C-alpha cells in the first residue's frame, strides 16, 4: 500500500513537471522533478525512514524561501523588464506577426451561419466566401453572390474572432485579405520578415540585427526595436545603481531614511513599551487590568485596518487630527504633501502599532528580575531610577536583544505600512525612477518593479540583493554591539 501511494504521488508530480516544461517553464518543471525524485527516494526506501519527518520542512524551505531568493538574485544580473519579457524566439514571433493594413482594400464584413459552419459576407463588394468552420487556420475563396438571408449579430460574430483571425480569403482578382479588426477584412503587409538567424527585414527594406548583449533587435541607426528578450548582462544593473546620478541620489536618500526609520521605530516602540510595562508593574496602581486591555488594543486590531484608519485621521482637509489642531492652535499641517511631516506621520503610526508588542515582552521580562537584587540596591540607598538602570535594565536587555534585532529587520522592510499609508509619496523631485520622501528600500524596490510604466525587474532584483546584504551586515553589527554592551552592563551589575 505504501509503495502504491508513493508511486501515485510521484506519477502526479512527474506529470506536473512535464506539463510545466510544455508550458515553457523549465525552471519550475525542474523544481517539481526534483521534488518528485526526493519524494520517491525518501518515502520509497526504508533506509531513509528518519528523513521522512524533515523532508516536508526542508522541501518547503527550499521551494518557498531559498528558490525565490536565488531567483531574485539571478534576475538582478539580467535585463528583465517590461521591455524584455519574452524569449528570443517569442520576440521574433511577435515582431513577424505585426502587419500593416492596406486601406484601399479594407472593407466591412458580416458572418452568416450555415448549419454548423459559416460564410463571410463582404457587403461593399458583394462577395460571399466558401463554407468555413472557423475552428483553425483556413483559406477560402470569395465569389459574387447575393446577401445571405440571416447574418449573425455583431456580438455573436465577435465570439468567433479567434477563427476569423486565422482565416485567409482570396478575392476573384487574386487579392488575399485577412481579418484586420473586429469589423473589417483587408490586405495585410508584414512589418518584419525573418531573413536570417539573427536578422529581420522591415517592410521598407531596413535590416534589423539581433544584439544578444542588450536583448533587442537594432536598426541601422542603432535604435532598439521593442519588444526585447531576456539576456544576462552581468553587473550592469549594479553599475547603474552606483554610477547613475538619477538612481544613486534618490537611493542614498531612501537608504538614509530607511535606516533612520527602522532605528527610530525600534527605539520609540521599545522605550514606550518598556515605560508602560514598568508603570503597569507598580503594585499600588488601580485598575491595572483595564489599562492592560486598553493598551493592548492596537496590537489586537489588524495592522492594515489601523493604518487605513490613521490615513483618514491624518487627512489634510477632513481628518480629525487637523480639525483638532486647527481648533486649538489654528494650524493645518500638510501631512501628505510635506516630506518631513509625512515621515513624522509614518513614525507616529508605526510607533502606535509597535509599542504593545514591546510592552507585552517587557511585562514578562520584568517579572523574571529577582526582587532580592532590587531590595539590596534600595537598602544601599539607590534611588528607584538608578535601580532600574543598573539592576533591571541590564538583566532584561540580553533576552530582548534578538527581538530588538528582529524588530529592526522587520521595520527595515515594512512595506505594508508605507504602501497603505503614503504609497511612498510625496515624490522626490528630479529623479529618473519612482522614489518618494517616505519610501523605504522595500517600497522603493516595489515601485521600481511593479508600480512603474517601465517596470525594471532586473534593476529591482539588483537593489534587492543590495538590501539583503545591507540588512544582514547591519543586523550582525547591531547584534555584536548590543551583546557586548549587555555583557558590560551585566558585569557592572554583578560587581
Automatic annotation (TrEMBL):
Record-linked InterPro entries: MalF_N, MalF_P2, MalF_P2_sf, MetI-like, MetI-like_sf
Q: Which GO terms describe its cellular component?
A: maltose transport complex
**GO MF terms held by the record:** ABC-type maltose transporter activity
Location(s), subcellular: Cell inner membrane; Cell membrane
Q: Does the keyword Membrane apply?
A: yes
Q: Which residues cross the membrane?
A: 27-45, 57-77, 254-282, 289-310, 344-366, 387-410, 457-479
Q: What is its main location?
A: membrane
Keyword list, A-Z: Cell inner membrane, Cell membrane, Membrane, Sugar transport, Transmembrane, Transmembrane helix, Transport
The Gene Ontology biological process terms listed for this entry are:
maltodextrin transmembrane transport
| Membrane topology of the entry | Multi-pass membrane protein
Domain (ABC transmembrane type-1) spans 255-478
Which family, according to the similarity comment? Belongs to the binding-protein-dependent transport system permease family. MalFG subfamily.
Known role: Part of the ABC transporter complex MalEFGK involved in maltose/maltodextrin import. Probably responsible for the translocation of the substrate across the membrane.
Q: How does it assemble?
A: The complex is composed of two ATP-binding proteins (MalK), two transmembrane proteins (MalG and MalF) and a solute-binding protein (MalE).
Q: What is this protein called?
A: Maltose/maltodextrin transport system permease protein
Source species of the chain: Yoonia tamlensis
Amino acid at each position: 500500500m505504501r509503495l502504491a501511494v508513493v508511486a501515485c504521488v510521484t506519477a502526479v508530480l512527474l506529470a506536473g513537471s512535464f506539463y510545466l516544461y510544455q508550458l515553457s517553464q523549465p525552471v519550475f518543471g525542474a523544481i517539481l522533478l526534483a521534488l518528485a525524485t526526493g519524494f520517491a527516494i525518501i518515502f520509497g526506501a526504508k533506509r531513509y525512514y528518519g528523513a521522512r519527518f524533515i523532508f516536508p520542512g526542508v522541501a518547503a524551505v527550499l521551494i518557498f524561501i531559498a528558490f525565490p531568493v536565488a531567483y531574485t538574485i539571478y534576475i538582478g544580473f539580467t535585463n528583465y523588464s517590461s521591455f524584455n519579457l519574452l524569449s528570443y524566439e517569442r520576440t521574433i514571433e511577435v515582431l513577424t506577426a505585426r502587419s500593416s493594413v492596406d486601406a484601399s482594400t479594407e472593407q466591412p464584413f458580416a458572418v452568416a451561419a450555415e448549419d454548423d459552419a459559416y460564410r463571410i459576407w463582404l457587403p461593399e463588394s458583394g462577395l460571399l466566401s466558401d463554407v468555413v468552420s472557423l475552428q483553425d487556420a483556413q483559406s477560402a475563396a470569395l465569389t459574387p453572390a447575393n446577401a445571405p438571408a440571416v447574418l449573425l449579430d455583431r456580438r455573436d460574430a465577435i465570439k468567433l474572432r479567434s477563427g476569423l483571425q486565422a482565416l485567409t480569403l482570396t478575392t476573384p482578382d487574386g487579392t488575399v485579405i485577412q481579418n484586420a479588426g473586429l469589423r473589417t477584412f483587408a490586405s495585410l503587409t508584414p512589418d518584419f520578415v525573418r531573413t536570417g538567424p539573427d536578422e529581420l527585414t522591415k517592410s521598407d527594406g531596413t535590416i534589423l540585427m539581433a544584439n544578444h548583449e542588450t536583448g533587442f533587435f537594432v536598426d541601422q541607426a542603432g535604435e532598439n526595436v521593442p519588444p526585447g528578450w531576456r539576456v544576462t548582462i552581468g553587473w550592469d544593473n549594479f553599475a547603474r545603481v552606483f554610477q547613475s546620478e538619477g538612481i544613486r541620489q534618490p537611493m542614498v536618500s531612501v537608504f538614509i531614511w530607511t535606516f533612520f526609520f527602522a532605528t527610530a521605530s525600534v527605539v520609540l516602540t521599545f522605550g514606550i513599551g518598556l515605560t508602560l510595562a514598568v508603570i503597569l508593574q507598580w503594585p499600588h496602581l488601580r485598575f491595572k487590568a483595564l489599562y492592560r486591555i486598553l493598551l493592548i488594543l492596537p496590537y489586537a486590531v489588524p495592522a492594515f485596518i489601523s493604518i487605513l484608519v490613521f490615513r483618514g485621521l491624518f487627512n489634510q482637509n477632513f481628518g480629525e487630527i487637523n480639525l483638532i489642531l486647527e481648533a486649538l492652535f489654528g494650524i493645518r499641517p500638510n501631512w501628505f504633501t510635506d516630506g518631513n511631516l509625512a515621515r513624522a506621520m509614518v513614525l507616529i503610526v508605526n510607533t502606535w502599532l509597535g509599542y504593545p508588542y514591546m510592552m507585552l515582552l517587557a511585562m514578562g521580562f520584568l517579572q523574571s528580575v529577582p526582587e532580592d537584587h532590587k531590595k539590596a540596591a534600595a537598602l544601599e540607598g539607590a534611588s528607584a531610577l538608578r535601580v532600574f538602570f543598573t539592576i533591571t535594565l541590564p538583566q532584561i536587555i540580553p533576552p530582548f536583544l534578538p527581538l530588538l534585532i528582529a524588530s529592526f529587520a522587520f521595520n527595515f522592510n515594512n512595506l505594508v505600512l508605507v504602501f497603505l499609508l503614503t504609497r511612498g509619496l510625496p515624490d522626490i523631485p528630479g529623479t529618473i525612477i519612482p522614489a518618494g520622501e517616505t519610501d523605504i528600500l522595500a517600497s522603493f524596490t516595489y515601485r521600481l518593479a511593479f508600480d512603474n510604466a517601465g517596470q525594471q525587474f532586473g534593476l529591482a532584483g539588483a537593489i534587492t540583493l543590495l538590501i539583503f546584504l545591507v540588512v544582514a551586515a547591519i543586523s550582525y553589527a547591531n547584534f555584536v554591539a548590543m551583546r557586548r554592551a549587555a555583557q558590560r552592563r551585566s558585569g557592572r551589575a554583578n560587581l
